[in-house]
Amino acid sequence: MKIFLYLLCVLSWVSVAQAKLNIVATTSDLSALVSEIGKEKVNITTISKPTEDPHFVDAKPGFIVKLNKADMLIEGGLQLEMGWLPPLVLSARNQKILPGNSGYIVASSGVHILEVPTALTRAAGDIHPFGNPHIMLDPLNGKIVATHVCDRLCQIDAENCNYYKDNLNNFIKKLDQKLPEWQKMMDPFQGTKIVTYHKTFPYFAKRFNLNVIGELEPKPGIPPSPSHLNTLIPMMKDEGVKLILIEQFRERKIPEFVSERTGAKVVVLPIMVGGQKEIQDYLDLFDYTINQIVTALKTKS
Q: What is the pTM of this model?
């Protein structure tokens, strides 16, 4: 009898586990939003690490199996994952997650895209032809992406649609409560001139009224050069640049070199959920980022 009850429990657990949807997300910020909406009804696999450059992910073949069994794939789009995701999807041989099918989501769909180039040329560097892909660093874009996730989960799991909608509403309510708090913290620093390493922060800067006047890279994807820094450093002095924002996966030597010569403070920021232990969800990402920026600017003043 005991053995029978044990087997019954095991079978019940397996049944519940199998009832969950298998979701693959390319980045941890997308995973965080899927988790907000799907909660215990989804199993989530994230391909990239939160501390690595999402342009250059070491996508191991083991993810092919995850993609083969996935009910849904969500990617950022705008060619952010162009260099590593297509071979995995092709090898997975899963019709459900191919473009045009219900198991495939492009997160950037419906988002107002910044920095869409008017002309394409290799001389401009490693540019994205459909615009800047770092959309998730504007929290209001997170609201759009969460809505996409909810809509699609409702398509492939209609039985639990109301559950997903309730979770979406709760997430939006929390985000709407946090946004005025973040804006109030940033208000004293509106128009502050900053430099970034790469064009990673235009969405964040636009939302919180920071003025990005240049990058350490002379062109997107091109490492900083002496000739570029010889132009950038005097310009930063003249403009009174306060901060240099860099992603946590960047080298530190050149940002520190520029900082020493301009007085601008280097602020190292994670750009994904999980990039620091304090960042457990999507809202934490902005709590952490804004606290780091405000602390640095208060220190300067």
A: 0.90
